[in-house]
Design goal:
It is found in: Cell projection, Cilium; Cytoplasm. This protein is mainly alpha-helical. It has 66 helices and six strands. The longest helix is centred in the N-terminal third of the chain and has 45 residues. It is globular, with a radius of gyration of 42 Å. The termini are far apart.
């Protein structure tokens, strides 16, 4: 057995000390010694670095050297079988060897030696620690004694020497004697000796003595004594007392200093330096004032942390003493700078605290802010008047003074009072620090409501009082007058730059809504901001010292204004600016015109100036804050800014592409810095171009630029880095991704960029891979919800991505499932088709065995399928390609028990419940009162799932509700009577107005009678009347000869055939169709296809929607067929006439699919006018009319346009009951196509409470897609829609008419 030598003990001591240092924080944080011991005992379990400590390594080596031979010997004994038999409690070789080793003599000897050695080492460590502590205390005593006996030479009153005095106990009688010795009548030596004794005394003893009042009076007298040694000693005592005394005492000391300074400035006029003279901080009288002011300022900044714990009167006393001192301002001081005047306390506080940190801290808390503002209003308003006056002086000062500001800034930026620093300060420097201090005070003051109430303020040499608006205008003009930088220096970045300080104030105001409304959202402010821009548009150079800096800051401020509703409205609609041409226009027009000129480089005044891209980018960003909203795009659209940005991007992109490959030895074609700036400019343009995708109409404009793929790729690169859209955006790219995914070109761009693959891989990782690396320490909880919280985000992302049928067509159309014979466990899904194959259509054991979490993953897939099938067109595609119904039915049939005899019972589990829900959802059609869907939750009791399980067709009758009977009353005959009586006047221009009035009247009184044949007759007559009028016809007449035998040869696609089946089931359920109506509906659809195909252009595109006609089912034609009770002749006649009217463009989606009537670029875009027009105005009006719902959509990452496209695309089937669908069609035909927008707004308004609730539960997308619109009746909202018509028709209807070139 090895023994420890003295060298070993020394090494052990060193290693143990290092170990203790490493765990010092953990031990010191323990609440007791016992807890500290527990921490050390369990260090191996809690410290991942345990085995890396040198002490642990040393012990391991020692144990190995001591017991290695024993362990080897015992191991050999057991493996040969020579040892004792291993009992039941020793079931492993390791346990047996361990037991025998611990019983050995060597082990006992090793433990005894180790224990004795460690006791010696620990005792030695403790002794050494105690010696070190004694030495340290001795050194501290010596140091303190030297400091207390030395002369106080530090110019900083709050330095360490002020707070680290040695204390000696003192009696009250001694303090009484000291107080008497400090009487001003005593000799200097006596007073100095008394002060020296006082400095040694503990502050608590001094402050608690009975003679403190008299002592304080004598100390205040000594503070103003001409003898610097006396005043320094008093200040030293005050500094020490302030650092260790309660507020009830320190406020007295603070008051003494403040009153002493106030008396000094009142009775001793200090001249303000003028010309080449300056003040010297080392001059005895000035040094004393600065020290006292410095102590006051430090106390001001610290007192806010604890004065709330004391009575408010203490705080009021401190505030009032401060304001009383700083409000001192002589009459000479009120004159303009440069004239003879006095040095005031405000100048000294400005020199010590240039940015008014003390005032910012006092204004931060409501507790002190209330008192400060009350005193400023009642007694010390002159302080604010003087600050405002100083800012006006700086603004009015001559150019030569402003040019010297640059030199002043550099000299002051790092200034500090002290012996090792500069001590001379000129009048210009004092004026400038006072200006900066005043600007910071005013900037903080106007942040608060009661601070703004101090305005308007009357100042000298101004006829009218200065209002808040005037102040902001003055500040902006100060920003414009920033001095030019010399030698290319970027002085505007200096911390004391006037521009920087003003911008800090403006940004603060922009970030606070109330401040911005009262201070910034004013016409004079906008006029001041845009004055240089308008001057440049007129071809003149504005009087700005730094054009680039000023323009950048103007754009930054305007962008912040445009981020709020009030600010955006001000920029868009207030036409109070005079343009370069002399007409009154809004700020938005000025900004976009200037941006266009910058991009096109058409501003001739810039020919000699090199304006960097940063300025252009800043103004594009302002425009972007406008055009990424529906209302902003409405104003900016005439300028075609998307084309300007796209053109600039192409130019920049071609520049970067033309850079040749560098050749060794040859000079570079473009400098590295220039290359970086070109790349940054290109990225900036792409970023701004991308933001057109924030709105439906903007997405169409982006697609027309041809840069949608590059923009989406750029978005994907930022999305993967989890970057914000911009500095003004609170949300990420979720909403924009959803907007892009609604259209065919958008989803194609997302697919090519790799975005879809990333979403799928993230989902697969969360669903199947889990957190393997931490599962041992933190085992993953068993998911209780159908979709685990860890997968919810991925689920919602997929729902957003696949919400539109365009996305399903593009990602899954004409794509067969892999259906592999074997799947590797490491094989991840990388596409939506893979998800369909691996998670949804699980039709083989190989797919089941390839999933680690089969039930959870398959449930996820079925929930996703349920949401997808809510869109009828998406369901038809999936059903036609993958035969979903049969797959789900087979899954139900397989999920039964296997009894010895008879039929088995259905096994009720999560998968069977989800399959049953999907089967009923896709097998029935109807609104909220026309079908019943089984819930997904089980019930308590003996029968947890009482609802019938579907395993074969037909559907259980339980899920099919009875059709409500239609009432036939007098009102119905009134409509018939109106139609009959108006046959002769039908061609009159006033007939349509009468019809609308009659329609509104019936809808308001007894809308449930407006259905059946009466509604069919009404629609026929209205369409006939409108199509017979040349003014009401929107599309040119198209000749179509109805020949049945020619169209019968056409064949319907599998999607259309499935759609026919759904339509027939619904019609028969409603008792509107006969059993033999299938051929008639097929014939109608074939005629519609033939008719519409004659009006389509040939489009060469890889998009699936252009491969073979309209990719979905014609739900509108099916709706008309049901309306006409299966009469194919009436239906076709109505549709042919209806095709000439504007409402057909929006109610009948196949009508304008790649239509020849549209401009060729729109026809080839793959973006339907229902999206770019109707959905665009739904979002625009929703923001104005139902802002809470609009915000809920934004927060959920979903868009109103997506759910509206689904509602309108399938004519509200499955969302409204049949009578309401009829009323929707009738309303849009009779009242106008813009009622389609108002209908969506009304539906979303009706669902407001549900939408807000499901936004909180993070399932808004799923709720809107799966749930019908309960309780919604068109008649109840017709009056509301008429109100929307009065407010918005001129805009909405005119834009709907502009879809054709001739109507623009």
């Amino acid at each position: 057995m090895s023994q420890f030598s003295s060298e070993d003990e020394a090494e052990l001591q060193s290693l143990l000390r290092e170990l203790l240092k490493s765990v010092k924080d953990r031990i010191s944080g323990a609440p007791s010694v016992e807890c500290a011991e527990e921490i050390l005992l369990h260090l191996e379990e809690t410290d991942k670095n345990f085995h890396n400590y040198e002490f642990v390594k040393y012990l391991r080596e020692y144990v190995e050297s001591s017991l290695g031979a024993v362990i080897e010997e015992e191991t050999e004994n057991f493996t040969r079988g020579d040892g004792h038999a291993i009992g039941t409690g020793q079931d492993t070789l390791v346990h047996a060897v361990t037991k025998r080793t611990r019983e050995s003599t060597q082990y006992k000897q090793m433990m005894q030696t180790l224990k004795q050695t460690m006791m010696v080492v620990v005792e030695s460590l403790i002794n050494k620690f105690e010696e070190d502590q004694l030495k340290k205390e001795e050194m501290d005593r010596k140091s303190q004694h030297e400091q207390s006996s030395s002369h106080y030479t530090d110019n900083c009153s709050d330095s360490d020497s002020s707070f680290n005095q040695s204390y000696a106990f003192i009696k009250h009688e001694q303090l009484q004697v000291i107080a008497e010795k400090l009487d001003p009548g005593r000799p200097r030596e006596v007073r100095l000796e008394a002060l020296q004794s006082l400095c040694y005394a503990p502050p608590s003893d001094v402050l608690s003595c009975e003679s403190w009042t008299g002592l304080r009076r004598n100390l205040s007298a000594a503070l103003t004594d001409p003898d610097p040694e006396l005043s320094d000693k008093v200040l030293q005592f005050f500094a020490k007392t302030c650092s260790s005394s309660p507020l009830n005492v320190t406020k007295d000391i603070y008051s003494s200093i403040a009153k002493s300074l106030e008396a000094h400035f009142l009775y001793h006029k200090l001249s303000f330096p003028s010309g080449s003279t300056s003040i010297d901080a080392n001059r005895p009288d000035m040094a004393r004032l600065l020290k006292q002011m410095r102590l006051m300022n430090d106390f001001q900044k610290e007192v806010t942390t604890f004065w709330i714990r004391h009575p408010e009167k203490y705080m009021e006393e401190i505030v009032e003493n401060t304001l009383s001192l700083l409000a001192l301002h002589s009459e000479q001081g009120m004159s303009s700078p440069g004239s003879e005047k006095s040095l005031e306390p405000i100048h000294l506080i400005s020199l010590l605290d240039i940015k008014a940190t003390w005032f910012k801290k006092w204004m931060h808390g409501y507790y002190s802010r209330t008192v400060v503002l009350r005193l400023l209003e009642r007694k010390y308003k002159s302080l604010i008047v003087n600050a405002l006056q100083q800012c006006i002086y700086y603004f009015d000062s001559c150019d030569s003074v402003r040019e010297e500001t640059l030199e002043v800034i550099h000299s002051l930026e790092h200034q500090q009072i002290g012996p090792a620093r500069r001590t001379l300060y000129t009048s210009k420097e004092l004026e400038f620090v006072y200006f900066v201090h005043s600007l910071c005070v005013l900037g903080r003051l106007v942040m608060y409501t009661n601070g703004r109430k101090l305005f308007p303020i009357k100042v000298k040499k101004r006829r009218d009082p200065i209002t808040l608006t005037d102040l902001v205008v003055i500040l902006i003009n100060i920003m414009y007058q920033h001095p030019k930088s010399s030698c290319g220096e970027t002085t505007h970045a200096d911390s004391l730059s006037p521009t920087n300080l003003v911008m800090e104030v403006l940004r603060t105001l922009c970030d606070r809504t109330e401040c911005a409304v009262e201070c910034l959202y004013k016409i004079p402010v906008i006029e001041t901001l845009l004055a240089p821009v308008i001057t440049l548009l007129k071809g003149k150079l504005p009087k700005l010292n730094s054009l680039e800096s000023a323009l950048t800051h103007i754009a930054d401020t305007l962008a912040r204004i445009a981020t709020t509703e009030r600010g955006l409205s001000l920029l868009l609609y207030d036409r109070n600016l005079v343009s370069a041409e002399g007409e009154s226009i809004s700020a938005a027009h000025v900004i976009v015109q200037f941006t266009q000129r910058l991009l096109a480089k058409e501003l001739h005044v810039f020919s000699e100036l090199e304006i960097p891209p940063a300025v252009s980018g800043a103004f594009i960003f302002v425009c972007r804050q406008m055009y990424n909203t529906c209302e902003g795009l409405q104003v900016l659209r005439p300028y075609s800014l998307h084309e300007c940005i796209a053109k600039a991007w192409r130019t920049t992109s071609s520049m970067s592409e033309r850079v040749p490959t560098p050749v060794p030895g040859a000079p570079p074609a473009m400098a590295s810095q220039e290359l970086q700036s070109v790349a940054a400019w290109e990225e900036m343009l792409l970023d701004n171009l991308l933001n057109f995708a924030a709105t439906p109409k903007g997405l169409l404009l982006l697609q027309q630029t041809g840069a949608i793929n590059e923009c989406v790729t750029y978005m994907f690169s930022r999305f993967t880095k989890k970057l914000q859209v911009s500095r003004c955006e609170k949300f990420g790219y979720g909403v924009m991704v959803t907007q892009v995914a609604t259209t065919a070109p958008g989803i194609a761009a997302l697919q090519s960029s790799g975005f879809v693959q990333t979403i799928v891989v993230e989902l697969w990782s969360a669903l199947e891979c889990g957190r393997e690396d931490v599962r041992v320490v933190h085992p993953k909880s068993t998911p209780m919800d159908p979709i685990d919280r860890s997968c919810l985000k991925s689920f919602l992302s997929l729902v957003n991505l696949l919400s539109s049928p365009h996305a399903v067509w593009e990602l899954l159309g004409h794509r067969a499932l892999p259906n592999k014979a074997e799947y590797s466990l490491r094989e991840m899904a990388t596409s939506v088709l893979d998800l369909m194959d691996r998670l949804i259509i699980i039709n083989s054991d190989a797919k089941i065995h390839s999933l680690f979490n089969y039930e959870q993953s398959h449930t996820f897939g079925l929930r996703l399928l349920s949401v997808l099938c809510c869109n009828l067109d998406s369901f038809l595609l999936l059903e036609s390609q993958y035969n979903l119904s049969e797959l789900l039915l087979q899954g139900q049939r397989d999920n039964v028990t296997e009894p010895p005899s008879g039929e088995g019972e259905f096994i009720i589990d999560g998968l069977s419940v989800e399959r049953n829900h999907i089967l009923i959802r896709i097998g029935t059609v109807g609104g909220p009162s026309e079908r019943r869907l089984p819930p997904r939750a089980l019930q308590k009791g003996n029968d947890p799932y009482p609802w019938p399980i579907m395993s074969t067709y037909p559907l259980p009758k339980y899920y099919i509700l009875d059709v409500p009977k239609t009432l036939r009353t007098k009102q119905e005959s009134e409509i018939s009577a109106f139609l009959a009586s108006s046959k002769e006047t039908e061609r009159d221009a006033s007939w349509m107005d009468d019809c609308r009035r009659q329609f509104c009247k019936i809808m308001a009184t007894k809308s449930n009678t407006l259905t059946g044949y009466v509604l069919a007759d009404l629609l026929e007559r209205v369409v006939l009347h409108l199509s017979s009028s040349s003014t009401d016809c929107f599309f040119p007449p198209a000749e179509y000869k109805v020949v049945d035998h020619s169209v019968k040869t056409r064949s319907l696609s599998s999607v259309e055939q499935l759609g026919v089946g759904i339509s027939l089931r619904y019609g028969k359920f409603l008792k509107l169709l006969r059993e033999d109506s299938e051929q008639d509906l097929c014939l109608l659809l074939k005629h519609c296809q033939e008719f519409l195909s004659q009006q389509r252009v040939s489009v060469t595109s890889e998009l699936s929607c252009f491969q073979s006609g309209y990719p979905g089912h014609d739900w509108f034609a099916s709706t008309v067929f049901l309306l006409m009770h299966g009469d194919v002749g009436r239906s076709l006649s109505l549709l042919l006439r209806f095709s000439r009217l504007l409402p057909s463009a929006f109610l009948w989606p196949p009508r304008l699919h790649s239509s020849a009537h549209l401009p060729i670029e729109i026809a080839q875009s793959g973006i339907h006018p229902i999206y770019s027009c109707t959905a665009h105005y739904v979002e625009m009006l929703l923001k104005a009319e139902v802002p809470l719902v609009f915000s809920a959509f934004r927060m959920s990452g979903f868009t109103p346009s997506q759910i509206c496209i689904q509602w309108l695309g399938q004519c509200f089937w499955n969302y409204l009951d049949w009578p309401e669908i009829c009323h929707y069609v009738a309303t849009c035909v009779i009242m106008g196509p813009d009622y389609q927008v108002y209908m969506c707004i009304s539906a979303l308004r009706h669902m407001q409470q549900d939408i807000l609730q499901h936004t909180q539960t993070q399932d808004l997308q799923v709720f809107l897609k799966e749930e019908p619109i309960h309780g919604f009746r068109v008649s109840n909202y017709l009056e509301y829609m008429e109100g929307l018509e009065r407010n918005y028709r001129s805009m909405v209807l005119s834009d709907m008419r502009s879809i054709l070139p001739r109507s623009s």
